[in-house]
């Protein structure tokens, strides 16, 4: 029962450790994104450029750890943006109305992306992409879903022209594979530039800032596409790794149980007495009273002195006769002085090792503690 309880406790500890690691990854990714933003905008930023790195942190956190870490990354990203980049800096309040809208949209899209990734991680059916044109049917739906809110709310399009695009690309890559994600990414880049970036209704880019924004979205969109389309393979690899980990854990628990069983049935102390050196070397296998009473190394004379006076002479004579008579094995019992001056009943099973000339070289044996009532005459 204790072994099973330890096994359950070990399993629960490992699971808790994995969950802590998931959230730790989310915190670390947001910290990296924040450092990149501070390097790019040391004086703060009221534009949407710094949300690109934070959105990537949310996506990776959700793909790695699931819904909870994705939501934590979203919350931490919002705090990072409001406290370190948006005016007034070093305060969670946001002064500019437009900046507040962009922050709210980031949080909303982070939640949406975490939910979409959660669905991807927890799907149970086969994840092979659809064959033929069917895989492209979701593309216009996703592109429209990401574009219509910005047409309805022009202020949103002006402040965050790439809002909802990440979730649309992720869904297309998940349902249709790599090609579907790339097609959706291309359409969203074109639609966003044509409708929401200056000059309006043109595919040309007016300034350097907008060029950087488009390039960042394309780079992160490709990342979303690759991760979303290859999630089936990643999930299979993760399942194999998890199975191997469970097998190793089961093997470790089995070895622990085997060790406990061996210790439970074996209370013998193995020893070797070198006849040429007169030294006894022991290997205790159970920390009971006998093992505590017997040191790892001691001289033969020291062991003899601790034998009960009434048993000492008979025990030594048995050993000497067996050695002199050419015997190879003998058993005997005696009383041995243990801790606190108490005598222990001991049973020895000894084997005499001899050379080619039959000369005795050493004695190897095992010692086991016996209840006093079982002290036998050999």
Q: What does this protein structure show overall?
A:
- The protein folds into 2 domains: 2-239, no CATH class; 269-374, PAS domain (Beta-Lactamase), CATH 3.30.450.
- A hairpin with a 5-residue loop joins strand 5 (343-354) and strand 6 (360-370).
- With 378 residues, the protein is of the alpha+beta class.
- A 6-stranded antiparallel β-sheet has the order 3-2-1-6-5-4.
- The chain starts with a helix and ends in an 8-residue tail after the last strand.
- Helices cover 62% and strands 12% of the residues.
In short:
With 378 residues, the chain is an alpha+beta fold. The protein is 62% helix and 12% strand.
Going across the biggest sheet, name each strand in turn: 3-2-1-6-5-4
Following the backbone from N to C, one meets helices and strands in this order, namely: HHHHHHHHHHEEHEHHEEE
Distance between the termini: 39 Å
Give a quick account of the main beta sheet: strands, pairing sense, barrel closure.
Answer: 6 strands, antiparallel
Approximately how much helix is present in the residues? 55-70%
- Uncertain ranges: 124-131, 373-378
> Strand tally, please?
6
Provide the residue-averaged pLDDT.
Answer: 77
User: Strand-residue fraction?
Assistant: 5-15%
Gyration radius, rounded? 38 Å
Determine the structural class based on helices, strands and strand pairing.
alpha+beta
Shape: rod-shaped
What is the count of DSSP helices, taking H or I runs of 4+ residues? 13
Number of domains: 2
């Amino acid at each position: 029962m204790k072994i099973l309880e330890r096994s359950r406790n070990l399993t629960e500890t490992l699971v808790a450790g994995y969950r802590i690691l998931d959230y730790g990854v989310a915190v670390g990714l947001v910290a990296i994104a924040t450092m990149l933003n501070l390097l790019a905008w040391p004086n703060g930023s009221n534009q949407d450029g710094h949300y690109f790195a934070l959105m990537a942190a949310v996506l990776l956190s959700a793909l790695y750890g699931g819904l909870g870490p994705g939501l934590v990354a979203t919350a931490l990203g919002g705090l990072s943006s409001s406290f370190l980049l948006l005016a007034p800096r070093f305060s969670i309040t946001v002064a500019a109305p437009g900046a507040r809208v962009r922050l709210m949209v980031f949080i909303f899209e982070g939640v949406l992306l975490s939910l979409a990734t959660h669905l991807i991680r927890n799907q149970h059916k086969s994840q092979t992409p659809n064959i033929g044109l069917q895989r492209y049917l979701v593309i216009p739906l996703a592109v429209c879903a990401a574009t219509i809110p910005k047409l309805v709310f022009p202020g949103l399009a002006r402040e965050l022209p790439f809002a909802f695009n990440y979730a649309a690309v992720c869904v297309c890559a998940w349902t249709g594979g790599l090609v579907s994600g790339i097609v959706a990414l291309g359409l969203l880049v074109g639609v966003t530039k044509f409708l929401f970036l200056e000059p309006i209704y043109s595919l040309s880019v007016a300034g350097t800032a907008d060029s950087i924004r488009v390039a960042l979205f394309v780079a992160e969109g490709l990342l979303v596409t690759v991760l979303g389309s290859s999630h089936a393979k990643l999930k299979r690899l993760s399942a194999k790794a998890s199975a191997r980990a469970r097998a190793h854990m089961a093997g470790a628990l089995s070895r622990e149980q085997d060790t406990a069983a061996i210790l439970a049935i074996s209370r013998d102390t193995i020893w070797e007495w070198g006849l040429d050196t007169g030294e006894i070397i022991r290997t205790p296998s159970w920390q009971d009273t006998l093992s505590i009473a017997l040191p790892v190394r001691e001289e033969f004379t020291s062991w003899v002195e601790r034998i009960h006076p009434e048993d000492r002479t008979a025990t030594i004579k048995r050993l000497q006769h067996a050695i002199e008579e050419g015997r190879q094995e003998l058993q005997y019992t005696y009383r041995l002085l243990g801790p606190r001056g108490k005598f222990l009943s001991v049973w020895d099973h000894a084997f005499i090792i001899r050379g080619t000339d039959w000369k005795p070289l050493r004695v190897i044996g095992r010692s086991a503690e016996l209840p006093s009532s079982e002290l036998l005459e050999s």
